[in-house]
Amino acid sequence: MERTFTTTARRSQIVRAAIETIADVGYEKASFARITERAGLSSPRMISYHFADKNDLLRQIVIEVFGMATERMTPVIDAEPTMAGKLRAYLETNLRFLRDHPLEITALTEIGPHLRGDDGEAYTSTGSQDHSASGLAEILADGQRTGEFRDFDTRSMAVLIRASVDAAAQRVRDGSDVDLDTYTAEVVTAIDLAVREADQA
């Protein structure tokens, strides 16, 4: 389907309504009827016109939210001249995005176990999360090559770092009273101490 301005705007309207609905009532209760009502549309058929099925709509939510996060994070990370700076920027921008976009993060954590990729794996499966861990592992390996980071298994450390971000996302979803600014500062300090060479700590 050729995308006109009107079509793009309508799709964005539906995606926004879906995010709000899923964050409000959860994945299981987020029917097309509920999304239609929140979007102010006349019929669920309008959603079906723009999206093949619920999985197609969920996939678009993930694409748009990740696009928002990438747009915010990438320039900050790229501006850092050192690997230690890039790692710190990755953590700070990632965790602050969670803080500033609770609806989107709640929706993503609800969607994760249900969204299927082309390979049939759930979005939250280990295989589907490999890309994020691989990117982190590259930063860590580059930091080892420049002498900023100590010797460690970069894959294991990348998984540990991702776990600290994912744990914060779950806290956002559950409405935890954890102060994300304090959490961010503590995680950044802990990871910095964990990866640095002893004479740089």
CATH H-tier superfamily of the largest domain: Tetracycline Repressor, domain 2
Give me the CATH fold name of the largest domain.
Tetracycline Repressor, domain 2
Total beta strands: 0
Task: Report the biggest beta sheet as strand number plus sense, adding barrel if it closes.
Answer: none
Q: Note poorly predicted spans.
A: none
Helix content: over 70%
State the end-to-end CA separation. Answer: 55 Å
For this structure, what is the CATH class of the largest domain?
Answer: Mainly Alpha
Report on this model:
The chain is mainly alpha-helical and 201 residues long. The longest helix has 26 residues, at 54-79. The chain folds into two domains: 1-51, Homeodomain-like (Arc Repressor Mutant, subunit A, Orthogonal Bundle), CATH 1.10.10.60; 64-200, Tetracycline Repressor, domain 2 (Orthogonal Bundle), CATH 1.10.357.10. It starts with a helix and ends in a 6-residue tail after the last helix. The chain is built from nine helices and no strands. It is elongated, with a radius of gyration of 19 Å. The chain has helices at residues 5-25, 32-39, 45-50, 54-79, 83-100, 102-111, 130-145, 154-174, 180-195. Helices cover 71% and strands 0% of the residues. Keywords: DNA-binding, Transcription, Transcription regulation. InterPro entries: Homeodomain-like_sf (IPR009057), HTH-type_TetR-like_transc_reg (IPR050109), HTH_TetR (IPR001647), Tet_transcr_reg_TetR-rel_C_sf (IPR036271). Residues 14-60 form the HTH tetR-type domain.
